[in-house]
Amino acid sequence: MTSPARPVDPAQARGRAARSRDCGRYERLRREDQDDGWDIPEEAGVIRTEVSEEVPRTIINYVRSPDLPFDRTLNPYRGCEHGCIYCFARPTHAWLGLSPGLDFETRLVARPTAPDVLARELRAMKYSVAPLAIGTNTDPYQPIERDRGIMRACLEVLRDFNHPVAIVTKGALIERDIDILSGMAAQGLARVGISVTTLDEGLSRRMEPRAPGPKRRLAAIRRLAEAGIPVRIMASPMIPALTDPELESILTAGAEAGATTASWIMLRLPLEVSPLWQEWLETHYPDRAGRIMGHLRDMHGGEVYSAKWFARMRGEGPYADLVAARFKRAARRLGLDRDQGPMRCDLFAPPPRAGDQLGFQFDAS
Questions:
Q1: CA 337 to chain CA centroid, nearest Å
Q2: DSSP H helical segments within 1-128, as ranges?
Q3: Alpha-carbon distance 141 to 153, whole Å?
Q4: Cβ atoms within 10 A of the Cβ of 356, count?
Q5: pTM score > 0.90 for this model?
Q6: Where are the alpha helices (DSSP H) in 143-243?
Q7: What is the separation of C-alpha 85 from the centre of its chain, rounded to a whole number of angstroms?
Q8: Per-residue pLDDT, 13
Q9: To the nearest whole number, what is the mean pLDDT of the chain?
Q10: CA–CA separation, 117 vs 219, rounded Å?
């Protein structure tokens, strides 16, 4: 692993997972922090979260990945303050000319007009309804949603259109929107996946510094389930030799909280995520770093990561097969191996707007 070009003093990065802010892969020039030579002591403050705004022209992102169960997504925010060090979405910050490291978790972009753009796209004559996935890139219930409310406004649009939605989150703030989600779920229009990576509070705090702890996420599963909202416990990502020994315990805790189905994904390290992850490993678990990275290479043909379809999510080889078999056995024992079935698309209907011409029937008798 190469040393980061822009390491940050740990005191500045308190409460963050990344410890560097190297430039993204698209930058022609590299930035490096240098001493100015004045020998004047300067106290560097803690890095705070900054939020800028973006006005998107479109908000529904269509995907064509053959190994995904959905073909469209929506992201109310770019970047994620939860700061999960393993997040496969970190490289998307490079598209903005920002660092997939600290910038990803400290320099966020909110999209306040997303609900209006969403409504406009759903009204388009050419639009064909299918379940919309939210939270597959950055978490819609990260801390800034508490003040911004963009996710809730998007849910209100989806509710008004009777549009099916599947949400993935670690954020307990989703409980705020139970009033919307429960009504949609009763019509077969909403389901939620809650990601629980580990039950170890200390490990979670180091690895996912600003996400709710495991107990809080399990409590969210319980509240959602009690409100009649189908919940999936997501044991993701499973990290070999670090969190995968907890697989059965995570599934059991999820089932006891009220989850009705389960899924898992192996740790993925695309692009800039790999050096960030290895830097984190060397900081917190240097004694296990070699073993963990060795297992990952074994599952990806000697590489740290492979983007091969149908293998990128879980890897290949004996270790991947063993984890898959353990998951299958535990899910069957806990009753989490059931199929949730398709979501309803037949209820979709754009609501009338002020000034719309109302339809009528002419009685010729």
A1: 22
A2: 102-106, 114-123
A3: 12
A4: 9
A5: yes
A6: 145-148, 150-161, 178-186, 201-207, 214-226
A7: 12
A8: 86
A9: 93
A10: 33
